Amino acid sequence: MDYQTLSTLKLHLAFLCFTLCTCLTTPVIALESKAPHSEWISPTTGMKFIHIPAGCFNMGTEDGFKFESPVHKACVDEFYLGKFEVTQEQWSEYMQENFSKFSGKSLPVERVSWNDAKSYIKKLNHAENTQKYRLPQEAEWEYAARAGTTSQFYWGDKIDNSYVWYFGTSNYKTHPVGSKKPNSFGLYDMMGNVWEWVEDWFASDYFKNSPIQNPKGPETGRLKVRRGGSQANLISHIKSHTRFRSVPDKRHHIIGFRIAFSPDNL
């Protein structure tokens, strides 16, 4: 075999190897693009949502307030949750008034009552010709915040200032969303910055009677649940199990919200 023939065969062999490698790696790329925790983006606000897989977890604590106990099993279907708290820029897309104490497009909107949050969601749904957007259920919120952890915080059992805006880091004000580290689901500021409204009514003994599958809270009540703590709270009020309650029309500069929806409404 002469030198020219040998060189030609080597070129053909190299091309064949390149083709085979490309074919073998292409499906892997395709699978990765459909991986869990994928994002979905609102076409009108640019709001980003993270896919939260279905699962079960131990909800509540035995080391907090009585209304945070008992620890009980809860299971939720898959859903999407806002990657960030709703910002003032997103709020202003549909609401004429912004009552926030701290002003800034990328800051979380605050001084928002539960009723205000529901009004915003109604307008967002109307703008996108859908009914999918909603507040998260309390069980969904805690499941997403914990992100598979059983510790006091979603990063461990000791405070880590790189994850959270609270009394010890905030300088008594809110900060741009997403400026601290996320949890394992890719959600930011689930602890601190602002408290977040959830859909559920509050009852101090609800955890004693909560169903396992997709608990939705009491059928009615006087107070609504808020979760996660805020920039003004001490360490004791920024834990994964932290919950509190307020009347639905309460506005305060430590309270905001984030939005959820179910995947069957995509």
Short description:
The chain has five helices and ten strands, in the order αβββββαααβαββββ. The chain is an alpha+beta fold and 266 residues long.
What secondary-structure arrangement, pairings included, does this model have?
Layout: H1 3-33, E1 39-41, E2 48-52, E3 55-59, E4 72-76, E5 79-82, H2 88-92, H3 114-127, H4 138-146, E6 195-201, H5 206-209, E7 224-227, E8 243-246, E9 255-256, E10 260-261
Model description:
The chain is an alpha+beta fold and 266 residues long. 24% of the residues lie in helices and 15% in strands. It contains 5 helices and 10 strands. It has helices at 3-33, 88-92, 114-127, 138-146, 206-209, and strands spanning 39-41, 48-52, 55-59, 72-76, 79-82, 195-201, 224-227, 243-246, 255-256, 260-261. The strands form 3 sheets. The protein has a 4-stranded antiparallel β-sheet, covered by helices on one side. Strands 8-7-6-9 form a 4-stranded mixed β-sheet, covered by helices on one side. The chain has a two-stranded antiparallel sheet with strand order 3-4. Strand 1 and strand 2 (48-52) form a beta hairpin. Residues 1-36 have low confidence and may be disordered.
